């Protein structure tokens, strides 16, 4: 992550935000990319004054919402065969077991899986295409998608921004310690959401679902 931050630091502010939105957007379409790492790195850069936190958060939220919506449209058009093709292309991230767990999450929690899925790596990638393939009503999907994207993007960005500013103020001579503390604090701050989200992402799910879940439960 430190390498990503150093690489971003060499870019102008506008390009940083564009890259944040693009990476998160493509990830949300169903392509495994390190969207969360890019967001965390950009948020820590914002704490140094290299870019405005509001622009980082806005770019991340926009990428998340638009990317999920594109993923939804693609999933609705391509259906489950599309998800299976993605699984063959990215077996380590979107294999049959991953797809089965994601489907089980939708079966149990409906559109709440979209909201809390923003905080879980697997569902963050699959939420849009899977919701489309399962014919989740778009209006309900969009509400959960937008809410999750905004909370995730602005919450993560501003939390790390203020923690980074505090670390920079009190630990000016030990900058690496400030970075580590900011990252650790950011991880700790999402514990509740991740614990909640784990209920939507059971580890003991079967490799294949018993039946196709109801889309709009």
From TrEMBL:
<feature type="transmembrane region" description="Helical">
    <location>
        <begin position="6"/>
        <end position="26"/>
    </location>
</feature>
<feature type="transmembrane region" description="Helical">
    <location>
        <begin position="174"/>
        <end position="193"/>
    </location>
</feature>
<dbReference type="InterPro" id="IPR051311">
    <property type="entry name" value="DedA_domain"/>
</dbReference>
<feature type="domain" description="VTT">
    <location>
        <begin position="41"/>
        <end position="159"/>
    </location>
</feature>
<feature type="transmembrane region" description="Helical">
    <location>
        <begin position="141"/>
        <end position="162"/>
    </location>
</feature>
<keyword id="KW-1133">Transmembrane helix</keyword>
<dbReference type="InterPro" id="IPR032816">
    <property type="entry name" value="VTT_dom"/>
</dbReference>
<keyword id="KW-0472">Membrane</keyword>
<protein>
    <submittedName>
        <fullName>Membrane protein DedA with SNARE-associated domain</fullName>
    </submittedName>
</protein>
<keyword id="KW-0812">Transmembrane</keyword>
<feature type="transmembrane region" description="Helical">
    <location>
        <begin position="111"/>
        <end position="134"/>
    </location>
</feature>
<keyword id="KW-1003">Cell membrane</keyword>
<dbReference type="Pfam" id="PF09335">
    <property type="entry name" value="VTT_dom"/>
</dbReference>
<comment type="similarity">
    <text>Belongs to the DedA family.</text>
</comment>
